[in-house]
Known about the structure:
The chain is α/β, with parallel strands linked by helices. It has a domain of about 120 residues: Helicase, Ruva Protein, domain 3. The chain is about 50% helix and about 5% strand. It contains 20 helices and 11 strands. Helix 7 links the parallel strand 2 and strand 3. One of its GO terms (molecular function) is catalytic activity.
Amino acid sequence: MREKLRLDQGQIDRGRKAAARIAADVNRELEKKTTVAVERTVLRLLGIDGVDTEGVPLPNVVVDHLLEQGRLSAGAASWVVNAALHENITPQQVAERVAAGSLSLTEIPQVEWASLLREGERLAAQGLERIAANRREREEQIRRLGEGRKPYLYVIVATGDIYEDIIQGKSAARQGADIVAVIRSTGQSLIDYVPYGATREGFGGTYATQENFRLMRQGLDEVGEEVGRYIRLCNYCSGLCMPEIAAMGAMERLDVMLNDALYGILFRDINMQRTLIDQAFSRLINGYAGIMINTGEDNYLTTADAVEAAHTVLASQFINEQFALLAGLPPEQMGLGHAFEINPELEDGFLLELAQAQLSRQIFPEAPLKYMPPTKHMTGNIFKGHVQDAMFNLVSILTGQGVQLLGMMTEAMHTPHIHDRKLAIENAQYIFNNARHLGEEIQFVSGGRVEARAREVLDRAVGMLEEVERIGLFTALERGMLADVKRSPTGGKGLSGVLEKDENYYNPLEAELKRRVGLDPREEGSVHGRGLPTR
């Protein structure tokens, strides 16, 4: 099915080149900046965990301490590693002393810079080895147990109680799910810290914490042994703590992360500079951890018309692809998103959906595309909803999608019950089995409705990308060119957490990650700063 539509390869190349220039321009503009979330992530990967006596996460305590001293722009790692060497203690003990008020990082004499670099590299390698070990463990379990066939059946749990989520996740795996996604508690993306420990209260979902990740991973490993296949775990790597959650997921062997370059800007009003800096570091981590990312282009069609705005989905897929490549994340880990959201009352709407899905499949042949179900036009008529989901499943198997987020016939009514999920899985399994190779038997009419629609969407997407390249991504977002949502480069939440790096900035994790994923860490300040700022 990959070459079924006769598309203009030259046009595809134009779109990809424009997207590459858009992403590169943004990276050049933002590479001299860091964020509080990036610095907290570095501390977590250096081994700092836990909370102080008031329940504040220790990475926040240390970063806030340096912010108050006006010294975070040198990078949190430089101060913490310096203190660890001078005091002959671990980074964890450094953080605990800062929290207790018995240590001021900016008052400790500077050790020899070469020694600091060696220790930073050692600690970075130590932190990343835990992630590498998890990746090896995933690969070994898949080799030993096997896994479901693509499209992977992806379902959600959203009880608010991690222990109930585990019960529901195991139930879903027994019913046939391949990926279990734990929906995050409403509003967590807008808090600038990560809650600590296991949680049993959440609204519309469960808090994303490292302990919750560990518990859910343990539960899915148990049921994986029972059902005889590896069950993937998904959570949300977005919001004001995007890179921190990427690190915690990598340390607890999550397999899939919702990780979009633009979603937080458009749908959570998070400052665009903050989001774009954070997504770069989070994708470095996800790429190294072997985590599949899911992008959020499907959300565009909840605020804009699915027929009229189809080209914005494709344009965003091109942009997300290029940001991911710049972070060293390979195509086989790019779950680029799109959705079955055309009004079911539209004549030949199925053909338009088929065109969009096949278009994405051909342009991104190696990506495990994530296909989202109908939501906007679900009415509460569960019988019609079940048919809509069946047609959605048929498009997926026809076009070779990678990840199928299953539609629920009760979508417009309530959070799905266990029996709703079972019916959704049976629906998909029936259609996938009966139409497994149907796509190999189908040819599209040259110049017919499906092909004409795909060409139209591609043409408009390329035109849009070249316009965004001309005016810049920040201006495009300001004008509302994506999802009909307008955002300001200096507006939104989290801008105060963006800092200019000073000439001595040091981040051993960034340097080591770039080396390991095959990128050239040429930003001198992030690798070999010249020492801590003069006190």
